[in-house]
Structures
1.
Amino acid sequence: MLDFARVQKELVECSKDAEGSGIKVSPKSDNLVLLIGTIPGPVGTPYEGGIFQIDITLPDGYPFEPPKMQFKTKVCLFSSDHCLSELVAVMVWIFVWHPNISSQSGAICLDILKDQWSPALTLKTALLSVQALLSAPQPDDPQDAVVAQQYLKDYQTFVNTARYWTESFAKESTRGIEDKVQKLVEMGFPEAQVRSVLEAVGGDENLALERLL
Amino acid sequence: MEDYATSDDDFHYSSDQEDSVDAYENDDQDYALLSSKGPTTQVITKESLLAAQREDLRRVMDMLSVKEQHARTLLIFHRWDVEKLFAVYVDKGISFLFAEAGVSVDEHRESDSVASAVMCLICMEDVPSNELTRMDCGHGFCNSCWIEHFIVKINEGQSKRIRCMAHKCNSICDEAVVRTLLSRQHPDMAEKYERFLLESYIEDNKRVKWCPSTPHCGNAIRVDEDELCEVECSCGVQFCFKCLSEAHSPCSCLMWELWAKKCRDESETVNWITVHTKPCPKCHKPVEKNGGCNLVSCICGQAFCWLCGGATGREHTWSSIAGHSCGRYKEQEKTAERAKRDLYRYMHYHNRYKAHTDSFKIESKLKETIQGKVAISEEKDSTLRDYSWVNNGLSRLFRSRRVLSYSYAFAFYMFGDELFKDEMTEAQREIKQNLFEDQQQQLEANVEKLSKILEEPFETFSDDKVMEIRMQIINLSTVIDKLCQKMYECIENDLLGSLHHGIHSIAPYKSKGIERASELSVCWGNNVNDTEMLLSEKDYCIYAASVGVTAELDRPSGSGSSDDSGCSSRKRARKEGLGGGFFDLNLPAEFVDRN
């Protein structure tokens, strides 16, 4: 079964030097099974400036089994007149354009998350490896064949696309808290409630929306 | 055929009878030497698995002077190929060998007694140093973390390669440590671990395969030399070691796979229906045209055009139907012709394949008759005491029937379009086909002759007449054996050998039938005879099942003689009369059964 004591310690450990590494891990739920990791895009890459969120699911066997990680996808709800009961369309977007990350699902192709996992690794070291993967794509072992082809054949277009995706999506989450509050209030939720919920979920707009609903 | 018979004349028709028998047996022995140098296959039972594994472990331990667990790790990494392991050792040195397989022999176990409590980097708890275990690689973690790790890995099926928990440490965990840690709290997991380690010898070893019997007999077979061979497990199942299906030489594995599938499939029936019938446009039942013009009327009363299958009226002449015209005549006829030709070709080969399998079935019934005849003969006040030649002839007959039936499946693919269309020109194919068919026909003719002679009521004959029959049977057996041998050689060298994309190879011909795997030496004490008995009994069952009859067998009671125990048993067999000759490989149990 899941070793809660260790996960707790990891979270504490991680928050200690969150400033230095920029890597954060926060629980999404109370049971410590679902977590959200945050990594800054590495400097000098098309991902620079982006803040990438990663959904983490801890299996029962953690840390003896690897954590499941995938880039967070964004569900956009297109509704008419901000009325959430009349949903028109649902779209799934993912924020990162990378040969080893599926542009459809956000699944990450990284050996330490599969057979090379070692119980001595932690969530933080795993996230660091993911960050390293952003700096050093491995197009020969691709998760997303389309992106990998582009990377190999038309590098410039790849860089442009990756940068565009970073600009459009990953930076969104860095928007000021006021913007988020305003957006949620516009949807028709009371401001005080919006603020407290946003704070509770660590500023995650989607999560806040889920709670508010 | 005449050639062979005459060339052997001086052996068989000269001097007295005893001599000629010896000549025949010597002949046989030569073949045995040619085709196999003693038993090259061994049965590994549950009991002997450990011994078999030990054998290889011992070699590596002695050679490299390492502990058993390290030898095992090395061997598992090299898939139990000792030769390959030694080759790597010679080429690249011992440190490479160890590093590659994840063996650390350096003792890193410094004393931990200095600190009373150490932090385990996995659970991040402080643990007393006596609850911390270090592996050979030097990495130490607390016992409960190790146990947790082992359980996860064993459940993942990774028993054979449980790596150290440290990141990027390629070391394989010390077997003894795994054992001790697990056995305390999780004896079931420890047992599972042991079993996996043991079975790795079979699963990871290219020279060893599980016997394909169902229900599984629990045995595995190890071959010493060529993996391309046919073997008989001690449970009686005969199989091709390469593809694990029934023994099928002189068919190649691929051919047999295709053939078996073709025979199983209903596709040929479907084919026949498409060639010979058309669905009624009204009731959709297949309609066969039994003559007449192209206006066909179905049993349901609907009239339709045989050429296009469309519904029509009934007004017609011989050449046209009123108010109906269709122009697809030529095209349809062509495809139908082709399908028809393929079907006939398949039927030709399949009928012959089946015919030999069927006569095998009928001839198996000969056993009782023959035994009766032999019994009567033995009762007679005669100078002849030895009737082993009857059994020898019979087993030769069975064996050659088998070769013949599979040879038709072989020919179907060898000279068909399916596999080798681009390999041969029409002319080449014709030459090869003639060559092969000549041999096949010679063999077939002799086999039928032998079959006929074996049915003679020799028990009523005079001694002279019996001697004559005996001579004929012995001669024919020798001839047939040689013809089989020649046919295999022809297939191997002239037919398959000349292919450019030759992926086809066949198991070599064994004059004495499919080799029965010997028990691994560790089990020699165990009633070998009983095993052998059981074995031929099952063989019959399996054969019977394959030709679609229900086998009813008596429990074996007599003593058989093992085929590989060499000359002494052979002599004994002869002295005992019919007590299980050395030719008993394909015999139903009852033959060997008789004491």
Note: The first helix of chain A runs from residue 4 to 16.
2.
Amino acid sequence: MNFVEKLIEILSYNPQAPLLFNSGFFLYFFLFVLIFNKLFTNYKRAKIIFLTISSIYFYYKSSGIFFILVIISSLIDYIAGIVIHNTNLKFKRKLFLILSLIANLGILGYFKYTNFFINNVNALFSSNIPLQDIFLPVGVSFFTFQSMSYTIDIYRNKLTPERNFTDFLFFVSFFPQLVAGPIVRAADFLPQIHNRPLITKADIGKALFLIIAGLLKKAVIADYISINFVDRVFDWPARYTGVENLLALYGYCLQIYCDFSGYSDMAIGLALLLGFKLPMNFNSPYKAVTITEFWRRWHLSLSSWLRDYLYISLGGNRLGKVRTYINLMLTMLLGGLWHGASWNFVVWGGIHGTALAFERITNLPEKLEKSKILKLFGAIVTFHIWAISMIFFRAQSTQHGIDMVNQIFYYFKPEVFLQFINGYSIVFALMVIGFLSHFTPKKLEDFVTEKISNASLISQAIIITIVIWIVVQFKALDVHPFIYFQF
Amino acid sequence: MKKNVDDYPLYLTATVFLFVAILSFIPFQFDLSGFKIKNVDIFSDFKENPKPEIKPEKPIEEDDFFKPKYDLNPNSNDSIDGLQLKEKIKASIFNLFLAKNLSDANNDTIFVKGNKVVLKNQPIVGNVQQLKFFFDGLNKTKSEVVRIAHFGDSMIEGDLVTADFRELLQNRFGGNGVGLLPITTQDVNFRQSTKISFSSDWKVGTVYSGNPNRFPIGFNGETFVPKAGSWVEYSTPHLYKYLKNFSTVKLLYTNAKPSNVNFVFNGNEKRSEKLIPGKSLNILTINLTKPANSVRIEFPLEDQAQVFGVSLENGNGIYVDNFAMRGNSGVDLNKFDEDLVKEFSSKMNYKLVIFEFGLNALGAARGDFTNYEKSMINVIENLKKILPNTSFLMISVQDKGMKTDPLVKELLDAQKNIAKATNIAFWNFFEVMGGENSMSNWVDANPPLAAKDYIHFNERGAKKLASLLAESLIQAYTKLK
């Protein structure tokens, strides 16, 4: 194979190796983007076009031909936005809003929910419609929501449409947030396109802190404990003791947080290095004392999206008490379904809806404020409600979930715990480090950020290089062999 | 006003890039108390993939012993590469809105990340003539009970593989029932084909996890001895077509006190049956007038008998007994009482023995399989001597790991050597799965076929294995019977 062929192979989409921030290729990509970003400093239009093309290319490297979806979705919403804004005809405004919603929800529905729908139809009518092998392009759930919020805001007269299609496409496709959020609002992002980015030394420190923390969370903790422990237990809970199941559940709570928040952190950090500020997406969620507070700390850009575009669209709390609770529940049920096409996610949403409603009725959050012990107790209970809901979130089937609970309650075998620490020492160490670092005080975080900000360019580069080196070491580690503990 | 440093990220990223590039040139690999420190190589993408070392073809590959002895099915001619390429192009262009039917996924097809991967089933090779005892048995399933002993490790725990394999064979050759079941077992939580519950006070001796009381051990490798009042209960599931009920219960035991055991069928039909003393294998057979869905057996006396298990059956046909031995590599299949094994065979009519072992040999062997070969050859030779009219089939190890564990291939060669040395039939499941690096396809398949430990198959994967095995075996039967 000659060099050109090799280069083409590297630059084309490879379904086995979709581009992630922690891929080796990303370092090349980001350097390339920064070089041209600098060259185009004084040519704003060229810069936006370049960044848009780079973003679309980034998506191509993640999902191949499906980058067309991003463009189609953007184009529809771009046109719908302008039409809705330019007309006073109520009917026409509504029509184009509905068109935009159908387009976005249609894309989302087809790629994510077709088989779910077929399964349910088959179960209801005992029919035998074959399931389809549909590839779920990455980020569909994110970019469709992002561009839907744009048309809804225009419909609500809260936003004027973007006139330039490239700018709009750039907003939807901006690569740091394209595949896994944060879900950015047009009102927050579009104005940033038009100004020359202001990046301060403090921003750099913050960005580096987020990127480093994100890399370690995602590529070290989450990736390692999932492949080496958590996945296999969830694959087959009945094969493992209760201790292992419980640790796998705690491990999964850590994994999903590290994975998701780590990726978001990297996205925010990378965007910041390009001069764009994205909203914060996670705020140490496991410190939450109630489920209500939890949802103000977990995946903020989604929970605020659901609040503004689903809960409020349903009537929010303006239609009386009963409707408020119904709306709350509906929002959480649909929010659950957003996470994945299965009734398990609806149950998951239901658990959270119930908890939120309960806390609202009893006014629990205020009551807990009064004492430190109550708050600690609240945090432990909240974490465990979350953990229980995560059984449904992660289990492959309801039966798997039931197996897991059964094993935890009826086949605990506490003596296996010490063997576990021994057999899975790295997994255990990472879990301890992961949870401990979650509870470090904000002050320490700020202190570290400041230290990084004030460090010299060389020192910063050395730190990042070391982190990359660590990530590579963990990536290259062999999968930890399967262990049957004796009991 | 704060200073704008919007060029800074470029310089910083370039410096990081430079550092990582420098690091890529420094060979920095060493072994730190077990952790292999790897070199960071940012240029690895650009380098030619190191060509797999072409080992001098081992003579064993050329060996006639492993050549197909009969014509292959003519319709498996599709070249895998050709198909994959075509499917790839299709996937990338048309799949945008036109998805493929998952129901296309028949026996030989799996879908991996939007690609269709065609599995190539392999014929049974090796000494297929030795399968004649089994094939003769298959010809007689209308008039007698014919059994297969399916030995394996954690791969077949919970009646995995066996359950689906049994169903396919019973569908073709008759027979209806799960066959011989253990009294106590660790896999009750994921055993789908029979619900087993038991009192926790049974004393157990096995060939694979110790036999402190030195109980005589039968062919199934496990012996259970009751305390006063120990019980076991079986009930049938609805998932499997041929396991819905049973009309014959066989209790296999030895060294009984002259006494009675109590049976309760369907929760209320009680019966008391006499045990016969004696050192030989005794089988207490109860034929029911009406098929039952559950049976509970209670042993009123301590050490009332040494019990091997209970077989649930429904008339003549083929029965496949699942003998799962967690953590075992097969080398302990000589720790049973040989006279008992002979009796097992003559009284229960075992016509085929399947060995499905391997992965537990990997850890112990540490790359040298000579001892494993020796032990396994002894085990099989010994069994062949005890069971001269029984056929033997060895199923190869499956692929393991995200990328094939190199030891797996050495083990595969060792298993070939074992099959050849003992002159028995061999089915290369490693090849059937897709050969090298195929486990990751099974894990990534839609729906997944194997667990994320890259070792164990899940129910779907086990089912696929079973149907491929049944396909090959029935194919051999139709060609050679």
Note: Chain B touches chain A through 65 residues (CB under 8 Å).
